[in-house]
Amino acid sequence: MAGLVSIPKPTLERLPVYYRVLLQCRDAGMQYVSSGELGRKAGFDHAQVRKDLNHIWSGGRPGLGYEIEKLASCLADFLGLHNTTDAVLVGAGRLGTALAGYPGFASYGLNIVAVFDADPGRIGGTLNERPILSVTKLADLVERLGIRMGIIAIPAESAQTVAETMVAAGIQAIWNFAPAYLQVSDNVLVRNEDLAAGLATLSYYLKEQGLPSVDSGKLSDGQL
Amino acid sequence: MAGLVSIPKPTLERLPVYYRVLLQCRDAGMQYVSSGELGRKAGFDHAQVRKDLNHIWSGGRPGLGYEIEKLASCLADFLGLHNTTDAVLVGAGRLGTALAGYPGFASYGLNIVAVFDADPGRIGGTLNERPILSVTKLADLVERLGIRMGIIAIPAESAQTVAETMVAAGIQAIWNFAPAYLQVSDNVLVRNEDLAAGLATLSYYLKEQGLPSVDSGKLSDGQL
């Protein structure tokens, strides 16, 4: 892949959680937070917090902890959240509607510039004040505006075709909510949000509840 | 935690992906699938597929591969998908609406029996033919029906309170879509679906695109 990453993926996925906790602390009027408190609020132990943040942060005062405003700003810089990322959303159904209106995304710099759908009943309407365009116009708009992120919120059977259209038009990162594995070239990053996997994990846990123990260490803290 | 798990978490999270691919193969009229083809469609290599499936499956014929119908049924049993899981959903906003209508859940045995909200403007309405009830009635209904799974799709600031109500009423597994870390007792499993973490991962990738390589091994296959 073209953009190379110098930080372990699990760390990368925890950084936005720290960022969110820091904003909550700041909004509560705090100036400093210890690794222990940050960890408790984020759901990781303090050693993990320190190890993760060492990748991006060399400050921190003994006895005082992390300076919230500075660390949050450093994290936002590192994650690219200070720069607004323009994205296109394909799929104006229930899930697409939820994503287009998800209030948390704005603080992460996501700007959905246009919404596409294949359903003539939806095309010409609006979603969260954005026009819903025909998916036949996807490639042209992505190329013209130089958009690099695409969000897929359509049924599995159409997802691969839409992904190929996106990539041919210049999309480099795909956020995939369709329950489908996308085959794309190596220089495109795909992030799969697989809701069924989450559900199956919980179903399995409920099924196992009360059965004899085989191995208690694997899911020991109760948080996935 | 009370229900103990005998299988590594990453394996557990891949099993529903195999299950989904097997259903697709079956619907396409296939009878057998090799570990290589299953892996290609699921996004993992064949050795990973064999290792994962060895946890639950001792069949498989040399040269023929996995018998799709039997393996799918075995996976569904293992994951508890053959038993319908009743759940309550708290939050009838955009995300809750999307979840209540997500078509994939039915095939995973999820049955949302009731929807709750705190907004008087929503209470008394319906969501996907289910009545929207006041959140003050949550505990009573969960206890009365013996429901064990709760889905949280509300803003972060109310999530902890709702989680505590759920657990006090007997909920044992929480699927949390609120961007909040929930503190619950050890015998309750929480699965956090953190959409902001997915977004930040993609933003980071786009920011790094074209920068010099530091370490190319960490995200090398482009799928998160």
Which features characterize this protein?
alpha/beta, seven-stranded mixed beta sheet, Rossmann fold, 9 strands, disordered N terminus, 2 domains, 224 residues, two-stranded antiparallel sheet, 17% strand, homodimer, Arc Repressor Mutant, subunit A
Q: Can you walk through the features of this model?
A:
2 copies of one chain form a homodimer. Chain A has helices spanning 9-27, 35-42, 46-54, 68-79, 94-101, 138-145, 156-169, 195-208, and strands at 32-33, 66-67, 85-90, 110-117, 126-127, 130-134, 149-152, 173-176, 189-192. Chain A is α/β, with parallel strands linked by helices and 224 residues long. Chain A folds into 2 domains: 9-79, Orthogonal Bundle (Arc Repressor Mutant, subunit A); 85-197, Rossmann fold (3-Layer(aba) Sandwich). In chain A, the strands form 2 sheets. Chain A has a 7-stranded mixed sheet. In chain A, strand 7, helix 7 and strand 8 form a beta-alpha-beta unit. In chain A, helix 1 (9-27) crosses helix 2 (35-42). The longest helix of chain A is centred in the first third of the chain and has 19 residues, at 9-27. The two termini of chain A are 28 Å apart. Chains A and B meet through helix 1, helix 5, strand 9 and helix 8 of A and helix 1, helix 5, strand 9 and helix 8 of B.
